[in-house]
Description:
The complex is a heterodimer of chains A (323) and B (299). Chain A is an all-alpha fold and 323 residues long. In chain A, 76% of the residues lie in helices and 1% in strands. Chain A has a two-stranded antiparallel ribbon. In chain A, helix 4 runs parallel beside helix 7 and helix 8 runs antiparallel to helix 9. By secondary structure, chain B is mainly alpha-helical. Chain B is globular, with a radius of gyration of 25 Å. The interface between A and B is large, with 110 and 106 residues.
Amino acid sequence: MEGVAAPAVSGPSDAAGIEGSSTGDRIYRVVTFLCAVSIPLLLGFIALEIIIGAWPALSKFGFSFLTGSTWDVGAGEFGAAPMIYGTVVSSVLALLLATPFALGVAIFLSEFAPPWLRQPVAFLVDLLAAIPSVVYGLWGIFVLLPILRESVMPFLATTLGLGATPLFSGPAYGNSMLAAAIILAIMVLPYISAVSREVLMAVPRAQREAALALGATRWEMIRDAVVPYARSGIIGGIILGLGRALGETMAVTMLIGNRAELSASLFAPGYTLASVIANEFAEASTEFHTAALMACGAVLLGVTLLVNMLARWLVGRVGRDGR
Amino acid sequence: MTPSRPTGSQRAAIERTGRSLRRRRVTNTIMLGIMYAAAGLATLPLVFILFHLVKEGASSLDLNFFTKMPRPVGESGGGMANAIAGTLVLVGTATAIGLPLGIGAGLYLAEQGSQRLASTVRFLSDILNGLPSIVMGIFAWQVLVRPVGHFSALAGGIALGVMMIPLVTRTTEEMIRLVPSSLREAALALGYARWRTSLSIVLRTAMPGIVTGALVAVARIAGETAPLIFTAFGNQFWSLSLDQPMSALPLQIFSYATSPFEEWHRLAWAGALVLLALVLVISLVARFATRSKHGGGHD
């Protein structure tokens, strides 16, 4: 780029040079502008193309696509309710499992950790986010599933006697909603803890000092002065984690069992919007099957868009108040 | 500190001082213990995963793994040479798409542009960053696989490239904002045109940070599987053609892990170890590169 315009800038005071550079400026401005607007355009293009691809299914099944519970490829009947149910249940359960740990880590790192421990712990938790989804899936198949099948599930069902409740009933195959939720919990933990840590760090020192000066213990300081101040940001972080969990594909596909049935039991296999796409898309042979999978993608796109917008808004609120 | 009236939460704290000090201290100790335990437990999965990957994968890593092609079911031996090469090609293609666009957008956000447009773009790039990767896959399929009629590495590279754009954009913007304005003013005062100031002074100064951001983005997409299942699709043979289906490490790990064959499970573990090593090394390089640049402080 420098080479192209070099002759024009022969000298700082050269009139031709200044004129030449103003052309350069205009090109520069246009090029960077185009790069910047490519992001909104791309987002719109993605949404448009997916809706176009999903249209045959959306127009045929209409609202019943969301409520129908039969997913029968052979019969050409497509209702996404089992997938929507599986997506929501696995994600929400994952958040319930991950949030206490993630908040514990975030509070530990922002309030208690001795300096020599802070960096390494933060680093280890961040590394969890770097592990590829398919590696989680592999580990889940060969390590997590056997543990669940042989120890955790019998323990919950028999030893604790929860097998009588609908939530923990049925045979313990391993591949299940529970397995998917556990792996998702490990995967979203770093996202929740990173955001929470950041908003906790943004809480002004005076807030902490005031609480301590009033005689609060450190735990009371956190509970009464620090966490309430950062609340909306922490909730934003949790919702951000939800966004990740909803769209997470590979690990869930490898562990959830992939069966399009509605079951109250966490021991039963399930299906999610993302994993049905991952499983069936490459082999979809009919126009409607492809369109139905695209429609699953459209639902997923819509939901994650909303969830992400909400999360960003909540996290942004703490940043603005804090400054 | 400016004196202010106690807020509701502070008043609550005052009221509590009346209660038993001992009980409060005990609660305090218990809660601190729980925080420590939570932090410890949260790092356990990482330790477990690393342990199993090394235990199961290391023994299968030999020269064959890196140089041989996959063998059909029933034959032992073989490697993932084509998948390793495919991953490099796919990541390269994605970088060629995501890096220039991301840097350009980052320059625009940091250096110019109306506030309104800049904050919209910033917001939407965060939204784009949050979209599930499988959505990028069906998008690339709809745009590039369906019209062409067959799977191609290019479609996979584009799906991954789109994922890189928001990551590169945001780090570029942040790094450019760190460049002192005195540098910019000095260049302008010497008669440099704006575009030259931006490209050869500001961008060059921010380059180490931008490289870090690009590495982080590469580490994230290198392990992506979902968008490749129906774009690059995978290939049992050696292929470096962007127009043809192409193998990739994550794809190979996925199909081997979900197969019923012992021999393939062994290769899946080895592949996962290599993939994770690749991703972690890139992340570590990125992390330490930034740290030395900013003297270890908050940037």
